[in-house]
TrEMBL record:
InterPro entries: Autotrns_rpt, Pectin_lyase_fold/virulence. The lineage of its organism: Bacteria, Pseudomonadati, Verrucomicrobiota, Verrucomicrobiia, Verrucomicrobiales. It comes from the Bacteria. NCBIfam families: autotrns_rpt (TIGR02601). The keyword Plastid does not apply. Keywords: Signal. Pfam families: PATR. Residues 1-23 form the signal peptide. This is Autotransporter-associated beta strand repeat-containing protein.
């Protein structure tokens, strides 16, 4: 027994610390056993409380075994000739005192194949490049004895198969690696606490075995890395101090491995969640704990791999926390009802609200999708979930927000699109998605310099009781515009009266643009009254739906059709496209309040094309009037309907009741097609006398009305056949026996003697057909069809 002095390196500084006055140095002269006196430099095995030293004198039998119970003040490894290992052996055990384990000046590593028992709070100091390793049997419990263990030095502490329990292990520097494999499980039991200080790393790794962390993990600036090919269970509480912490997932497994962090996250620091996993899209980690007490920041900021993190439980959203989603990273909210705090999607990050979820953002919180300058990376939010958003929602620089089928978004906080620095903001409401804005402030569509802020209703429904407004938009289409686009049947639905749907800020005439894209859009006034003073542009059509009144007062240039299915659409200017159609449903009103004439191509009422000419309200003086119109203006219709359909309108037939070609409302033997072909009256069974059979010196003749411009009839084996004209084909046949209708017949000059005038000389003309003379008896008939 003697006193020696050894160098001790702590945090890069060189110190010299004397071990306790009594120390034993291993020589291993005789065997591997500690309980053999001749294996020790002083000739006696260690007494209780002595320190153990492995130095340059330690040259033999370094794979040691205890063979008895020892209680020592500490172990120091300095310069033995090889790695030192310590095993219990038969009847062996080891208790470590306050001296702990010192590898601060070691040139070799130290390995335990059995667990020592800490007898006091202590430090395990491992120098750079050195390793303190515990290689233990399957499911070994490493009882820390209720003590506090401080791992210092930048070297490695490694354990395979150990389950830490009953105490605290603080990693002040370097790394602590906890490994498992197909036959070895490892973990941190609920009675243990692991603290990771700044610069320290906790690494869990396994193949097909499990890592179970049920104890408390405290982040004080350190990092936890996960790797391996089996699902881990990380259920213990996680505390993140002001110094923050990092969790990093590294697997390259092709099996799709999900790490579950079900422990509650608390604290106020920045918690970095980094998914660097590769090879499979589902190599990620899910947060399933109750994180409501966490007031810090969840930073999703991996720099490689999948970079996706998923909130997969109701309380995992951290309502009091801030979420920051960095470049190429994705935060997913799975099929759960959860509450988020502030969310910042930046630098090309992505936020995904997955199908079936319900996401709540409380008042006072915000969701901002914004690639902070100078970044140009697109930032994205995809939603297919129910969202209850009481906080502010901002789509900023280079943002793309897609609200997809399944999205039911209620926004009571302020909503804005804000471009910046040449990079626009885009929000698209797709088919099957709804967005209800219940906030009091206007919806801001503010572009940046040389960029647009675009809200597109692409089949979805956007409900608002507030107007759209801009403070920066240009009035000239191109760039630097705030734009509202309705396309694919997208619907703007009102929940309040609006003095102007597109409002201008006080003291300026600058307004957002309104465009109709492919498939057109719908404005549903929903029993409210609103004005749309901004000119509507684009190639799509506009449908006015719902009760209430929409007044268009701008000089519109959209070229699509205009449809009114409910309420009143008031036109303050005569600017409907000349080549467009107007479609009105009975019960709805098109108010021609411009007082002039507006030209369109076609007019449909209840789906039936109407006659050409001027149309207006009853008493307006228009050629045609209908109760679907009001106001003093006229609608000039250029194109008449298909002749048969126009004829049914003129004759007072009703579509769906008695206007079909096969209908015979007067029961006179002629269906409507026959009445149309022969200029008859479908509502009167009286004979009109327009078909005449005569026996002339030159032979029998038949005279009847034929649609104008039918052209020449052509002879064939069945008589004479007309071309298809206005949907009708005429066939004239002759017979001498009423059986064979192939007697020669030819057309002659019209004989209109004694026949009544036709109802419309522009629509029909009389034509006469004759059988050649010399037949003792002859019969004539006309057949009509609507097929080619």
């Amino acid at each position: 027994m003697h006193t020696q002095t050894y160098p001790l390196i702590v945090s890069g500084a060189l110190f010299f610390a004397a071990l306790p006055a009594s120390a034993d140095t291993w020589t291993g002269t005789t065997s591997t056993a500690w309980n053999v006196d001749t294996n020790w430099q002083d000739g006696t095995q260690p007494a209780s409380g002595e320190a153990i030293v492995f130095d340059s004198s330690s040259t033999a039998n370094l794979a040691t075994t205890l063979g008895a119970a020892f209680s020592v003040s500490g172990i120091s490894v300095v310069s033995p000739t090889a790695t030192v290992s310590i095993a219990n052996g038969t009847g062996g055990s080891l208790t470590l005192g306050a001296g702990g384990i010192d590898l601060s000046a070691a040139t070799q590593n130290l390995t335990f194949t059995s667990t020592p028992t800490p007898g006091a709070d202590q430090t395990w100091n491992v120098a750079t490049g050195r390793a303190l390793t515990f290689t233990l049997p399957t499911n070994t419990t490493f009882n820390l004895g209720g003590k506090n263990i401080l791992k210092s030095g930048t070297g490695t502490l490694a354990s395979a198969g150990a389950n830490l329990s009953n105490g605290t292990l603080e990693i002040a520097a370097g790394s602590f690696t906890l490994n498992g494999n197909s036959s070895v499980a490892a973990g941190i039991q609920a009675t243990a606490t692991l603290q990771l200080d700044t610069g320290a790393t906790f690494a869990t790794s396994r193949n097909s075995g499990n890592i179970t962390v049920a104890g408390n993990v405290k982040f004080n600036g350190g990092t936890w890395t996960m790797d391996g090919g089996a699902v881990g269970s990380f259920s213990g509480p996680i505390d993140v101090s002001a110094n923050g912490g990092t969790v990093r997932y590294l697997t390259t497994s092709t099996g799709g491995i999900t790490q579950i962090l079900s422990g509650a996250v608390t604290g106020s620091g920045i918690f970095h969640l980094q998914n660097h996993a590769t090879s499979h899209a589902n190599n990620r980690y899910d947060l399933t704990g109750n994180n409501t007490a966490f007031t810090g920041t969840f930073a999703i900021d991996g720099t490689s791999g999948n970079r996706s993190v998923r909130i997969a439980a109701a309380n995992a959203g951290g309502a009091a926390a801030t979420w920051t989603i960095g470049a190429a990273n994705t935060l997913q909210v799975s099929n759960v009802a959860t509450t988020l705090g502030n969310v910042n999607v930046t630098l090309g990050g992505k936020l995904e609200y997955l199908t079936g979820g319900t996401i709540t953002v409380p008042s006072g919180k915000s969701v901002v999708v914004d690639a902070v300058a100078p970044s140009t990376a697109t930032t994205t939010l995809n939603s297919a979930a129910t969202v209850n958003h009481s906080g502010t929602f901002t789509a900023g620089r280079a943002s793309v927000v897609n609200l997809n089928t399944g999205t039911a978004w209620t926004q009571s906080g302020a909503f804005s699109l804000v471009g910046n620095g040449g990079y626009g903001a885009t929000v698209t409401l797709n088919t099957g998605a709804t967005f209800s804005y219940t906030g009091a402030s206007p919806i801001l569509l503010n572009p940046g310099a040389s960029s647009n802020a675009t809200l597109t209703l692409a089949g979805g429904t956007f409900t608002t009781g507030a107007p759209f407004q801009t403070t920066t938009s240009s009035t000239t289409p191109g760039t630097n515009n705030g734009i509202l686009i309705l396309q694919g049947g997208g619907t703007l639905k009102l929940s309040a009266d609006l003095a102007d749907i597109i409002a201008a800020p006080t003291g300026t005439a600058v307004k957002n643009l309104v465009q109709l894209g492919t498939g057109g859009g719908i404005i549903d006034t929903n029993s409210h009254t609103a004005i749309l003073g901004q000119a509507i542009t684009g190639a799509g059509g506009l449908t006015k739906a719902g009760n209430g009144t929409l007044a268009l007062t701008g000089t519109n240039t959209y070229t699509g059709d205009t449809t009114v299915t409910g309420g009143t659409l008031s036109l303050g200017t005569a600017t409907l496209a000349d080549a467009s159609k107007v479609k009105i449903t009975t019960g709805a009103t098109l108010a021609l309040d411009h007082g002039t004439t507006d030209t369109v191509d076609q007019l449909f009422i209840d789906g039936v094309q109407q006659l050409s000419g001027t149309w207006g309200a009853p008493g307006s003086g228009a050629a045609h009037t209908s109760a679907v119109f009001s106001g003093t203006g006229f609608l000039s219709v250029t194109t008449a309907p298909v002749p048969y359909e126009g004829w049914t309108i003129t004759k007072g037939l009703t579509t769906g009741t008695n206007a079909a070609k096969s209908d015979n409302p007067d029961n006179d033997g002629f269906n409507n097609l026959g009445e149309f072909a022969f200029d008859g009256n479908p509502l009167s069974g009286a004979t009109d006398g327009r078909i005449a059979l005569r026996n002339t010196p030159d032979g029998p003749t038949i005279t009847f009305p034929v649609r104008k411009n039918a052209g020449a009839f052509v002879g064939d084996s069945d008589g004479l056949l007309s071309p298809l004209v206005d949907g009708v084909r005429y066939r004239v046949q002759a017979s001498t026996d009423l059986m064979n209708w192939n007697t020669l017949v030819f057309e002659t000059a019209p004989d209109t003697t004694g026949l009544p005038a036709l109802s419309d000389a522009a629509g029909w003309e009389y034509r006469t057909f004759q059988i050649a003379p010399g037949n003792p008896k002859a019969f004539l008939r006309v057949k009509i069809t609507d097929t080619p």
